[in-house]
Amino acid sequence: MIEPTRKNAWRSFLLLAALLVALPFLVDAGLGRAWVRVLDFTLLYILLALGLNIVVGYAGLLDLGYIAFYAVGAYLYALLASPHFGLHLPFWMLLPIGAATAAAFGVMLGTPTLRLRGDYLAIVTLGFGEIIRIFLNNLNAPINITNGPQGVNMIDPIQIGGLLFDKTHTLFGVTFSAAHQYSYLFLLLTLTVIFVCLRLQDSRIGRAWVAIREDEVAAEAMGINTRNLKLLAFAMGATFGGVAGGLFAGFQGFISPESFNLMESILIVCMIVLGGMGNIPGVILGAVLLTVLPEALRYLGDAQRALLGHVVVDPADLRMLLFGIALIVVMLYRPAGLLPSRRRQRELVAEAGVAEQEQASVYDAQR
Amino acid sequence: MDILTQQLINGLVLGSVYALVALGYTMVYGILELINFAHGEITMMGAMVALAVIGALVGAGVDLPGVVIALFGLLAAIPVCMALGFAIERVAYRPLRHAPRLAPLITAIGMSIVLQNVAMLIWGRQYISFPPILPQGRHQLLGATITDVQIAILCTSVILMAALVTLVKRTRLGRAMRATAQAPQIAGLMGVNVNTIISLTFVLGSALAAVAGFMVSAYYGLAHYYMGFMLGLKAFSAAVLGGIGNLAGAMLGGLLLGVIESLGAGYIGDLTGGFLGSHYQDVFAFFVLILVLVLRPSGLLGERVVERA
């Protein structure tokens, strides 16, 4: 009985692998070259969302300044591999440096905030994110470190061994453009991160995070070192953010503080909550939807022309409006997210009764 | 000394506006434990509606004193914002009252995006300037200058805050609000219509936000569809700084944040030997916020939460 299921598992695995390998070309053929870039960005956002999911989804620490780690990763890559300082470190050094520095920033944010809970933590992380952005924006005088609001440009493209990702390569008669190559690199890293997250989720650490999320005092009483584990959650989340930032800098070739504003942090929180907090497929779905939706809404101009004969409202103005409405509507109908984790689903069913009990016991205690 | 007084005055004026907006955040939080992210956008809407009405009146050549025209703008903005606050609670928060904690946060963010973009569709992307209809008088006070507009902002804020405190502490409605904040279900058992109270809380907060929005646009002479974001953020920081859910805390936090910001902007250059300039104003505000919260995680007045509303 075991044999056939295993064979099935292998078959679906191979099918999925083939689909993923073909994905950039399918996107290219089906939607056009521009969408391969959208695919690249989607993968980057999946990386970010998975990283933040460790902090928010697993450990239950609402972090509204997550983009700061992305910024740290991106700026380190940019400063160490661009004509700005005349440094051109190789990719295999840049990525670990970026990841480690981001992790250090994660611990730096985590240490003073260990005592804070809920919304207080949210506002402090938000402040942290803003502080990082404002520093990036202003550290061009008196010593020019970040080049201020102009940002850093001419960043070296990612290069692994002899393979320069910015050039078009032809292999076995198939042409790989820069966007195609990046998508494979990002895909590889995303898969690695998914694997790490899956393993973390069921590990001792992952279960300890869930315990902290559900009840910090009880977790501590059970012998969980809440301080170290919360710091670990911040550090791991930050690491993924830093890696994604480095990739973004190499991919884009230009970064400026504008890319790392609060709205981006909020967007990533939205991805997680919309998709289903703490559930990896849900988080991926949320990231894909929120990256693709605004791009797809760009076609609103064409739709208006087709339907009404002329453009009534500029699609650029309309798409964020629709995006906001979509956020509200989805949350109203699926408050636990589109793909809630199984644990959450069970909780939601039980929640009504439990809430009443809690209220009653609080009332008794107050008497 | 003159610079110090000047910065203090500027800080208090700015801080009183923050305090008015922060009161809206803190009232809602006290009752629903919800960060009403769209509150900053309601402030922005208040400013935009007021400016639109004022602009129309000035454009039509209405022959009235400037202050009266400005008052017309304000009187138009208040009901619009009240209606908005009421509608937002109904549409985005009430259906999610028993949902997971982060769900209403997302609808709040969604609302905020929607309001921003609606404002952008109506009034465009450019800055709208406040017509020069208000008195431009300047007075000397302890070696510093204070304008008529600044005096008006300070007085209005103080009056409104006093009125709100009286409302919450002395009236039947206020008692119902406090009861709802303490225990919604028990308040319901005692004959308080909890839903009405929650709606009224949103409406009240939005009215304050409308006034604050109007005053900010009068102070800076500008309004913009994106102005609510940073203002809301600062006001929320102020509410947390004072201890969220606490009325006095919001006022204290607002004033403190305003003063810290303006003193910080004025002195940061001297303190760091010219290394950091006044554009680090926002860093200063957030840095103090983080410091206070790290040392006092429940905010300055957070522990005495008996009188929240």
Description:
The complex is a heterodimer of chains A (367) and B (309). Chain A has 367 residues and is mainly alpha-helical. Chain A has a domain at 32-261. Chain A contains 14 helices and 8 strands. Chain B has one domain: Orthogonal Bundle (ABC transporter involved in vitamin B12 uptake, BtuC). Chain B has 11 helices and 4 strands. Chain B has helices at residues 2-32, 39-59, 66-93, 102-123, 148-170, 172-182, 184-189, 194-220, 227-242, 247-271, 281-295; strands spanning 128-129, 138-141, 144-147, 222-223. In chain B, the strands form 2 sheets. In chain B, strands 1-4 form a two-stranded antiparallel ribbon. In chain B, a hairpin with a 2-residue loop joins strand 2 (138-141) and strand 3 (144-147). Chain B is globular, with a radius of gyration of 19 Å. Mean pLDDT of chain B is 86; it is low at 304-309.
Unreliable spans of chain B are 304-309
Question: Looking at the chains present, what oligomeric state does this protein adopt?
Answer: heterodimer
Mean pLDDT of chain B: 86
Main sheet summary of chain B: 2 strands, antiparallel
Brief summary:
The complex is a heterodimer of chains A (367) and B (309). With 367 residues, chain A is mainly alpha-helical.
In terms of topology, how is this protein built?
The complex is a heterodimer of chains A (367) and B (309).
Chain A: H1 2-31, H2 33-58, H3 67-80, E1 81-82, E2 87-88, H4 91-110, H5 118-138, E3 152-153, E4 159-160, E5 163-164, E6 169-171, E7 174-176, H6 178-201, H7 204-214, H8 216-221, H9 226-252, E8 254-255, H10 262-275, H11 280-296, H12 300-308, H13 315-333, H14 342-366
Antiparallel strand pairs in A: 1-2, 3-8, 4-5, 6-7
Helix pairs in contact in A: 1-2, 1-6, 2-6, 2-9, 2-10, 2-11, 3-4, 3-5, 3-9, 4-9, 7-9, 10-11
Chain B: H1 2-32, H2 39-59, H3 66-93, H4 102-123, E1 128-129, E2 138-141, E3 144-147, H5 148-170, H6 172-182, H7 184-189, H8 194-220, E4 222-223, H9 227-242, H10 247-271, H11 281-295
Antiparallel strand pairs in B: 1-4, 2-3
Helix pairs in contact in B: 1-5, 1-8, 1-9, 1-10, 2-3, 2-4, 2-8, 2-9, 3-8, 5-6, 5-8, 6-8, 9-10, 9-11, 10-11
